[in-house]
Amino acid sequence: MKKNNYWEEKRILITGATGFIGSWLTKELIDRKAEVTILMRDYVPESLLIKSNYIKKVNISKGELEDYFSILRTLNEYEIEVVFHLGAQAIVIIGNRNPLSTFESNIKGTWNLLEAVRNCKTVDRILVCTSDKAYGTHNELPYTEDMALKGEHPYDVSKSCADLIAQSYYKTYGLKLAIARCGNIYGGGDLNFNRIIPSTIKSIYKKESPIIRSDGLYIRDYIYVKDIIRAFMILCGNLDREEIDGEAFNFSTENRIKVIDLVNIILKLMKSNLKPIILNEVSNEIREQYLAIDKAKNLLAWEPQYDLEKGLKETIKWYVNYLKNKK
């Protein structure tokens, strides 16, 4: 008897598919026998999607989020049914250094995609991935989904705007969509080595003291990429439910931690006696950010399956193997 698989033969478009999270999602959907199309601007040889050869199993549409007609053509020509919108400029420090390209990608890119979806009759649903950064600074934490979105700095503002634009397309045009607001996602395949987890592992592997750009006391929560991929698929697969459609959901482990403590855990797991170097040079970043996930638990029956140590062990193993092969 054939197993019921919602994703089998579904025609799916993924934006940001060659990025860290997009690569994991694309691989999972291909393994579930979906027909995946990706919108690809740049060829990144080190991308997990390319290195794993899964790139050969997808349809590639050359284009960028800033080009509305390229998106609309892709949706129509590949008769897309489901869209996962992950494409974005995803680095906070780049957002602060180069706000224009961040706004173009994250804000204009989102309205272009949603407008193209609105004008394509084949698309049934869309998941928009934003961030805990969309909430901005609040006096009370953890963030809950009913809190105001009030980013202040360029990257955070781009996430607030993308989120609000998605909400407007649901409320005004009835697009079937959901919004995923995620904590800091980590795991193998993230090649942005200015992020704390990849950079720390790489430094320790090279027997160099890990660098902390802040004072080490910033508080975040971190969630393993496999938990996020499962969350995305559960959320998108449940969009036929009235209480899910048009809603935003937080996804995290609810395990808040200081940056210095995170680095020390990685040092311990990698059996290193190195000491971190604290630069204390960060500005324009929110000091404390962490999420409540009661809504996801109650409505989606989703909970993370990886605690921080379990996720870090798998992540360290991936990077050690990657760095060995790079040598």
CATH topology: Rossmann fold
The separation of the N and C termini measures 48 Å
Number of domains: 1
The CATH C-level class name = Alpha Beta
Structural class: alpha/beta
Q: Flag low-confidence runs.
A: none
Rounded radius of gyration (Å): 19 Å
Query: Do you know the CATH architecture?
Result: 3-Layer(aba) Sandwich
Helix share, percent: 40-55%
Order of helices and strands: EHEHEHEHHEHEEHEEHEEHEHH
Question: What is the overall silhouette?
Answer: globular
The largest pleated sheet is described as: 7 strands, parallel
User: Proportion of β residues?
Assistant: 15-25%
Taking all residues together, what is the mean pLDDT?
A: 95
Question: How would you characterize the overall build of this protein?
Answer:
With 327 residues, the chain is an alpha/beta fold. The chain has a single domain (11-191, 224-255, 289-305), classed as NAD(P)-binding Rossmann-like Domain (Rossmann fold). Helices cover 40% and strands 15% of the residues. It has helices at residues 20-31, 48-51, 68-77, 92-97, 99-118, 154-173, 196-205, 225-237, 259-269, 294-300, 308-326, and strands spanning 11-15, 35-40, 59-62, 82-85, 125-129, 177-182, 184-186, 211-212, 219-224, 248-251, 256-258, 277-278. The protein has a seven-stranded parallel β-sheet, with helices on both faces. The chain has a three-stranded mixed β-sheet with strand order 7-9-11. Helix 5 (99-118) packs parallel to helix 6 and helix 7 packs parallel to helix 9. It is globular. The model has no long low-confidence stretch (mean pLDDT 95).
